[in-house]
Amino acid sequence: MPPNQKLLLILVAALLLLAAAWLAFRPAKPAEATAPGTPPASSATAPNPLTAASVRLRSKPAAPAARQTLADLRATLAAMSGDEAVAWIETYLTSGEDQSTGLEFEIGPDGTMTGWPTFRTFLLDALLTLDPAAAARISRGILTEPTTADEWALALRNIGRVETGEETASFLRERTEALIANPAWQAKPSVGYLNAFDVLVHTRATASTPLLSGLIQNKERKDLAHAAFLTLDRLVQRDTVAELTLLGQDRALQQSRPEMTAQQFARADLRDPAQQTLVKAWLLDPARTPTELRSFAGVYPNTNRFVSHNLLTTESAPTGSDLAAHDREALALITAWQADPAFQPIAEHLATMIARLKEFTGETQDIKTQDAR
């Protein structure tokens, strides 16, 4: 072989070796960032898992078939990577599409949803299980513009389950008030709309008392008045001093709903000095009417509870031993008030309260037994 040709072959071999080495050790190309709501590149050719469910719902199946469709989709989403499932859901929610499920908005134990009126409400609920942080983030986006009251209720629920702190509480209160005050939603309140009031209880939103008071005074809308009353009643139980202070200042509500207001003051625990001071001032106020005093005395101590499944809060009844201890101490306190000249104007109402407490503590029965002997 001529020397020049041999040299050429050596150079070509060397270049091939260098090329192979570069391919083997070159740096990996950085992965491209995926915008929120965009399905990952690996899913570009994969079928959209939400499409089949949406098509089935479009045919308006019976409730059992709709539930099975949603259960199947939940299992499919759970089998994916979290990021992929969230991306598919966010893409759908961003599109503005929706389908009716034919199901009712229904809450089960511990705030678990057992019924979803639309496909979007189902997806918002599913997000909380798949990725709580993403659920809160996407829910904040939902709350930037009116969609439906049911969607907003679940978006508020998602944020309340995931986030804490004063900023979150303030945001939830403001958005819940916006939901409640929305004229279209208020005109025809959905089940989700009415359940959203629970968010105010969760955040202890005593600052929402003026809104609730206005709804309670609207005697033409019993549905809204009842929802507002239940909310205010539960706020009294959670932040008694703050809420009773506001109710004591609300003359319009006292005049419109005197019995209801009186029964809220009857929830006070008189063993607590701050609550006792509030109740004494309310009872001895010359503005008190016989109707209010009779309503207070007729239910004191008011320990009734409305138990229901809620979006964020739970209710638990006090134990029998706790109630018995409270009644004994309250009886001793109110008996002492009887000897105080300041309470003479309401002596008959104190007697009614004492009679109720003696019955609860068993003293009335003891007296009857002694008389029989």
Explain what the structure shows:
This protein is 66% helix and 1% strand. By secondary structure, it is mainly α. The radius of gyration is 32 Å and the shape is elongated. The protein has a domain at 60-163. It has a two-stranded antiparallel ribbon with strand order 1-2. Residues 6-35 and 367-373 have low confidence and may be disordered.
Tell me the strand order in the biggest sheet. Answer: 1-2
H and E string: HHHHEEHHHHHHHHHHHHHHHHH
Range of helix content: 55-70%
The proportion of strand residues reads: under 5%
Let me know the average pLDDT: 88
**Structure summary, number of beta strands:** 2
Termini separation comes to 137 Å
Low-confidence stretches: 6-35, 367-373
Overall, the morphology is elongated
- Which structural class do you get from the secondary structure elements? mainly alpha
Radius of gyration: 32 Å
Task: Note the main sheet.
Answer: 2 strands, antiparallel
Number of helices: 21
What is the compact description of this entry?
With 373 residues, this protein is an all-alpha fold. The protein is built from 21 helices and two strands.
Please supply descriptive tags for the structure shown above:
disordered C terminus, 21 helices, mainly alpha, 373 residues, two-stranded antiparallel ribbon, single chain, 66% helix, elongated
